[in-house]
Amino acid sequence: MEYSYLDKINFPSDLRKFKEEELEPISKELRKKTIETVSKTGGHLGAGLGVVELTIALHYIFNTPRDKLIWDVGHQAYPHKILTGRKSKINTLRQKKGLYGFVRRSESEYDPFGTAHSSTSISAGLGMKIAKDINKDNSNVICVIGDGALSAGLAYEALNNAGAMNKRLIVILNDNRMSIDQPVGAMSSYLTKLLSSRSYSSIRTLVKNLTKKFPKGFSNTLYKAEEYSKGLISGGTLFEELGFYYLGPIDGHNFQHLIPILKNIKNNDIEKPIFLHCITKKGKGYKPAEDSEDKFHGVNKFNIETGQSFSKTEKKTYSDIFGDKLIKLAKEDEKIIAVSAAMTTGTGLDRFSKYFPTRFFDVGIAEQHAVTMSAGLATEGYKPFVAIYSTFLQRAYDQIIHDVALQKLPVRFAIDRAGFVGADGPTHAGSFDIAYLSCIPNFIVMAPSNQNELSKMIETSLFINDCPSAFRYPRGYSNGQTVENDKKKIEIGKGRIIIEGNDIAILNLGTRLDTCMEATLKLKKYNINPTLADARFAKPIDTNLIDFLLDNHKFVVTIEEGSIGGFSSSVLNYIHNIRKTKTNSIIKNIVFPDSFIEHKDPNDQYEEAGLDCNSIVNLILNFFDEKVLNLNNFINKK
Ligand SMILES: Cc1ncc(C[n+]2csc(CCOP(=O)(O)OP(=O)(O)O)c2C)c(N)n1
């Protein structure tokens, strides 16, 4: 597709050559390009569409990359990528060797800080600003943060600290009244009140009064820009109380508001942090997105004309299984409560939230709080299920240890997106939860091998009332080979044998069981008949099962979808430090490599980690080869 403006813009320096009046048609093309791209790659669309004008205005006014621009979360940065040297590669977004779906430093000098987990921008920006001041470098640092991201504690820690320092940090609130689902919390209501009490179309007269309030340099330029500064108001906001100059709310899609105000912010010399409140619309300019409930937050490839997704399936995801099962259990047990940290739909809890509105709590992007609040609920005899993605639960590690495990409180952790997550890459991969949970005393950690097992483990955790428990499961669907429908209860700390063989044993934890099954079938062609076992528990491990495998097999392979330090480490610890009898068996472990695996198709990720069928088969065949080789060496030496 040809673009009359965009084709001439590769970097912000090209953009700055255009007249202010031309920014509007440029924004139309940038929006079009963003839609066209995501329709082919899938990814985050609504957030990017909501900041098209803001992205252009920021690069137009500020001297990026010398001025540092940090996009919180980074899912809204596709238009920014297009304007900052990556237009020709934008079609590779989220694909193997292509551009990343969030922001990363290694991709461009225009990306001063990697983002993907939310609410980090103000902290990182303040650090940069402090460093610049020490270096006597007067360039700007601008943090763009969403109203959803502003619900996280980290953002307040940063605001609190920045407000107390006389640093000229610029924070721009991209307020679109949306998180992924509806925004929650008192701050969200406060922002709404701020807007409704100060309509930004009828406050021109306020500007004159305002000029008296600001230091000289600031007010004069503001005054000159009065004609454009319809949106400027001030006085008594929470952000001012925190030590910021609050400006806004302004229309974040209107260049006549954005340009003069950003110029003013850039050109004034006040030594104070500045807070600019922009009102935007998620999904802006693309009707199917504007009309949809989630404003096309995250989408698969779709038809541009209709907005219809190309990949529709009736199959249930693991998250669906969790949501459905919890409803079923909650109908019979009124003590069950579900807690989400801004991921109601993603964790499959949307139906639960409608079914049991008084027993469901979305706390916002506040994983730490979600965990400690659940601990509090447990002290009162409630049965909280807190559903958080593995990668985001990393935020709440101290709460897990100090508030939950130490007090042996029966909080149930539903850990979604455990293992690889494909196109979302290493920032979102659930790599560490087995390791970081199974080293904590008083914890039970389960990993289902299929959806039926997940369903049973949810029930198992309901009956664990004397300590915390967790069950971790992946993104997407189970391919069904090992789905049985047996209803037999799971015994705590007990695994199971799936296939009984000889010589070789595979001890798998989690949903690679299907792949292990495939590997055992392949190995049969070489006359190798492995025993295949499903560990079910990462903690406590099934020591009887391990003993059986060691005593009856020469070679035991453990497999898990997680980092070193997890299940395999517990197995080795048992063998080396706890088990009384020595073993002559050889033990190998397949875990994630000691590197962050890049975004690509999950199958490629499994292959890279050695967790695909061929890698498992080869590992086992090599064992036999080595044995033959050793025997030959022995004979030759004789
Ligand atoms: C710590 C953490 N928890 C959850 C998420 C998942 N997440 C990605 S974007 C988002 C909503 C952000 O809302 P907002 O900041 O308002 O940006 P918008 O998408 O509305 O532009 C959430 C919850 C995350 N990225 N990081």
In brief:
The protein is α/β, with parallel strands linked by helices and 638 residues long. The protein is 40% helix and 14% strand.
- Number of helical regions: 25
Widest beta sheet: strand line-up? 9-8-10-11-13-12-17
**At CATH's second level, what is the architecture of the largest domain?**
3-Layer(aba) Sandwich
The helix content, as a percent range, equals 40-55%
Heterogens = thiamine diphosphate
Instruction: Point out poorly predicted stretches.
Output: 201-213, 223-231
Main attributes of the structure:
globular; 25 helices; binds thiamine diphosphate; Rossmann fold; alpha/beta; about 15% strand; about 650 residues; 3 domains
Can you tell me about this structure?
There is one protein chain. This protein has 638 residues and is of the alpha/beta class. It folds into three domains: 6-299, Rossmann fold (3-Layer(aba) Sandwich); 318-472, Thiamin diphosphate (ThDP)-binding fold, Pyr/PP domains (Rossmann fold); 496-632, Rossmann fold (3-Layer(aba) Sandwich), CATH 3.40.50.920. 40% of the residues lie in helices and 14% in strands. It contains 25 helices and 19 strands. The strands form four sheets. Strands 9-8-10-11-13-12-17 form a seven-stranded mixed β-sheet, sandwiched between helices. Strand 15 (503-509), helix 21 (513-524) and strand 16 form a beta-alpha-beta unit. Mean pLDDT is 91; it is low at 201-213 and 223-231. Bound molecules: thiamine diphosphate. Thiamine diphosphate binds next to loops.
List the helices and strands and how they pair.
Elements: H1 12-15, H2 23-41, E1 43-44, H3 46-49, H4 52-61, E2 68-71, H5 78-86, H6 121-134, E3 141-146, H7 153-164, E4 169-175, H8 186-197, H9 204-213, H10 216-224, H11 238-241, E5 245-251, H12 255-267, E6 274-279, H13 287-291, E7 298-299, H14 318-332, E8 336-340, H15 350-355, E9 360-362, H16 367-379, E10 383-389, H17 390-393, H18 397-405, E11 412-416, H19 433-438, E12 444-446, H20 451-462, E13 469-472, E14 496-499, E15 503-509, H21 513-524, E16 531-534, E17 537-539, H22 543-552, E18 553-560, H23 567-578, E19 586-590, H24 602-609, H25 613-637
Parallel strand pairs: 2-3, 3-4, 4-6, 5-6, 8-9, 8-10, 10-11, 11-13, 12-13, 15-16, 15-18, 18-19
Antiparallel strand pairs: 1-7, 12-17, 14-16
Helix pairs in contact: 2-4, 4-12, 6-7, 9-10, 10-12, 14-20, 16-18, 21-25
The structure holds thiamine diphosphate.
